[in-house]
Design goal:
The chain contains three helices and 16 strands. The chain is mainly β.
Length: 195
């Protein structure tokens, strides 16, 4: 009888030791690096009170994936009609302190895609079936004078990339695109002033 207990104990220990702790594999997460999918709209680093800071994304459903011969069809692969990403806008309140700038969702100028604002801006690129691309163009209003900075690092592992995540149906692959973004300083910030 003791022999059976030992055999069961060893069997349970073996099963527990072989559990997969890779959450990315369990949740069907795939990661790729594709640069320049999101951009800060060209503007001087000085804005006037009342102007908007625009963030843009307009990328095809078929993307070059690190030089492979065949393009990656993200729409077919994920079934996603939306990709989400985030960014933070902060205002300097002292020489070493910054505070997050928020506005009401209704004050965001949403021309393409969708956005929600809280402690960060949650941007959603929406699929346009006509030209088969994911689109986002949202302006963040600048209401007060001061020194500002913007970062895409809130949900990204690297300061100079933005992570776009497919909002895929429950049974489909979730695609995480790490996209290098230009115009940021060495710490991952886009610095600007408002006068």
């Amino acid at each position: 009888m003791k022999k059976i207990h030992y055999i069961l104990l060893i069997a349970v220990a073996f099963m527990v030791s072989n559990c997969d702790t890779n959450d990315a594999g369990f949740y069907n997460n795939v990661f790729v690096d594709i640069p320049n999918l999101v951009s800060i709209e060209a503007h001087s680093s000085t804005y006037t009170i009342g102007e908007k800071l625009f963030i843009n994304a307009d990328f095809s459903r078929e993307l070059d994936d690190n030089g492979f011969d065949k393009k990656l069809d993200v729409y077919q692969t994920t079934g996603a009609t939306q990709f989400a990403f985030s960014y933070v806008i902060e205002k300097q309140i002292s020489t070493t302190e910054w505070e997050v700038v928020t506005v009401n969702d209704s004050q965001l100028v949403i021309e393409e895609g969708d956005a929600q604002n809280g402690s960060y801006v949650f941007g959603i690129c929406e699929y346009n079936a006509t030209d088969e691309s994911y689109e986002y163009r949202v302006g963040f209003p600048l209401f007060t004078a001061g020194t500002y900075r913007m970062s895409f690092g809130y949900n990204s592992d690297s300061p100079d990339t933005v992570e776009l995540r497919s909002l895929s149906p429950a049974t489909r692959l979730i695609l995480n695109i790490n996209s290098l973004i230009t115009g940021l300083d060495a710490n991952g910030y886009y610095n600007f002033t408002v006068n």
